[in-house]
Amino acid sequence: MIGFWFSFAAAVLTTASFVPQALLVLRTGKTEGISLTMYAMFTVGVACWLVYGAILGSWPMIVANLITLALASLILSLKIRDTIRDHQNAR
Amino acid sequence: MIGFWFSFAAAVLTTASFVPQALLVLRTGKTEGISLTMYAMFTVGVACWLVYGAILGSWPMIVANLITLALASLILSLKIRDTIRDHQNAR
Lengths: 91, 91
Known about the structure:
mainly alpha, 91 residues, Monooxygenase, PQ-loop_rpt (chains A, B), 4 helices, homodimer
C-alpha cells in the first residue's frame, strides 16, 4: 500500500512540477536559462512513456504523461521561438 | 518487446535530458528562466520515484532516478543560491 502512495505522489509531483515552469515562461517571456536540448530530449522521452503507458493500457501513465507532454511541449515551443528570434537578431 | 524499447528510450531520454540543463546552468551561471517551484516539486517527486523503485526492487528505476535526483538537486541548489543572492541584492 505504501508503494502506491509513493508512486502516486511521484507521478503527481513530477507531472505538476511543469505547471509553475510553464507559467513562469508565459508570464516573464524569458527562456534564457532553459536548455533547448533538455526540453527536446525530455519531450521525446515523455512521448515514449506515453506510448509505453498505452501499450500497458495504464491510464495513470497515459494521463500523467499526456499532461507532462503538453506542458513540456509548450515550454519547448517557447524556447524554440526565442532561439530563432535570437538568431535573427544576431544577424 | 517493443514496449521494453519504448520504456528504455523513455527512461534514458528523460534522465539524460537533465545533463544539458545542468551543464548550461554551470556554464552560464544563469538560472533566471528556471522555476524554483518546478525544481523543488520535481526533486521531491523523483525522490518518491526512487523510493518506489527501491520498494519494487527495480534496478532500472533506482539507477535512472538516482541520476535524475542528483542532476535535479544540482540545478535546484544553484537556483536556491541565485534566489538568495537576488533577495540580498534587493535589500
